[in-house]
Design a protein that fits this description.
heterodimer, A: about 230 residues, mainly alpha, B: mainly alpha, 5 helices, about 0% strand, flat
């Protein structure tokens, strides 16, 4: 039995089942809280705990899946390229918004981490929480954080963003379509973008654009800011 | 065969990104350098979207799937999470709202600024 579980095939099968289950539940409910990735992680985690299977056994297959993180990051250039015209049409407001937003995120997290007295490593893991997962994992590694914690924080942020976006935009009178889209994409990446697409076409496109721009800006700015903030 | 050849292109770009990261000591992750390289190739027409369309849809359609193992790795950090879950949720909530509002305002303000500038230019043109 041990040999079977130690085969990479086991981890891959379990991951695909978890993912399909997540997609199924999300499509049926359409609720942001049932994020497919969140469900898949919970399913796999619960399965391992229930049947007392070690993380090492799962990782034999899991590592093979993680190999695709590199190509998955590189391919983000494609949606960015497709939206290039939309970026050019509102270049200054978009870049200003994403830049100020990304810096706010990094400084905000750093200050709150100190206030809550959280350990440095955990705090560094939270820095990339607003950007897209593949870039966030890489940034977390580079800063010296825990990539797994970063993934959890990113999903949590995405779910919060997609639930809160319509309310926040109404309360704070963010009415301009470009502003709404950029605000959602910068604060809550791809998960928030699904909500932005529901709000409207312009909002969705702008949110999608902000994912790539915010990811890039944060990767460049975060190491400098983190060193500066100490 | 098509998919494999396209995967080769993407993996080669990935690898080139890693090489640049390692040897030129660019303080940006290799994958992200790869993303910029692909972006440059697309903008300059070295690569066409059609050339990599199959691998693009394969990766983009199942993007979330590739993050599952990283997320499951959380099992190794359950004690840290148990001690800090409230703080993590609190920090995430506050910063998500803060970033959304600050970003939205910045875009709205700079759009209005740009409009006003245009108006001034028009007036001086006349």
């Amino acid at each position: 039995m041990k040999e079977l579980i130690d085969s990479p095939v086991f981890g891959i099968i379990l991951s695909i089942i978890g993912y399909e289950l997540g997609l199924l539940i999300y499509r049926k409910t359409k609720l942001p809280i049932f994020n497919p990735l969140f469900i898949a992680i919970c399913f796999v985690g619960a399965f391992l705990l229930k049947f007392d299977i070690s993380l090492d056994s799962y990782s034999k297959g899991g590592n093979l899946i993680s190999i695709f993180l590199g190509p998955a990051t590189v391919i983000l250039a494609v949606p960015l390229y497709k939206q290039l015209n939309k970026l050019k049409a509102n270049l200054v407001p978009i870049l200003a918004g994403v830049f100020v937003g990304s810096i706010t995120s990094i400084i905000g997290v750093s200050m709150l981490v100190k206030m809550f007295g959280i350990s440095r490593q955990l705090g560094l893991s939270l820095i990339p929480k607003s950007i897209t997962t593949p870039i966030g994992i890489e940034l977390s590694k580079q800063l010296g954080g825990i990539p797994s914690v970063t993934v959890a924080a990113i999903i949590l942020t995405g779910i919060m963003g997609s639930i809160l976006a319509p309310v926040i935009c109404r309360i704070f009178r963010i009415t301009d379509k470009v502003a709404v889209g950029i605000a959602i994409g910068t604060s809550s990446h791809a998960v928030g973008t699904t909500k932005a697409v529901e709000i409207g076409e312009v909002e969705g496109a702008m949110s999608g654009l902000a994912i790539g721009v915010a990811g890039l800006l944060t990767v460049f700015v975060a190491p400098i800011l983190v060193r500066w903030l100490g | 065969m098509k998919l494999l050849r396209q995967l080769l292109i993407i993996l080669a770009i990935c690898f080139l990104g890693e090489i640049l990261h390692r040897f030129l000591r660019i303080p940006v992750p290799g994958n992200v350098i790869g993303m910029l390289l692909l972006f440059g190739c697309l903008c300059t027409g070295i690569l066409k979207l059609d050339t990599i369309s199959e691998i693009t849809s394969f990766l983009m359609d199942h993007l979330a799937f590739f993050f599952i193992p990283a997320g499951v790795g959380l099992l190794a950090y359950m004690t840290i999470l148990k001690e800090n879950w409230a703080a993590i949720i609190g920090i995430s909530l506050v910063t998500t709202v803060l970033v959304m509002v600050v970003t939205g305002y910045t875009v709205q303000l700079s759009k209005r600024g740009a409009l006003r500038k245009e108006a001034v230019n028009e007036r001086t043109d006349r």
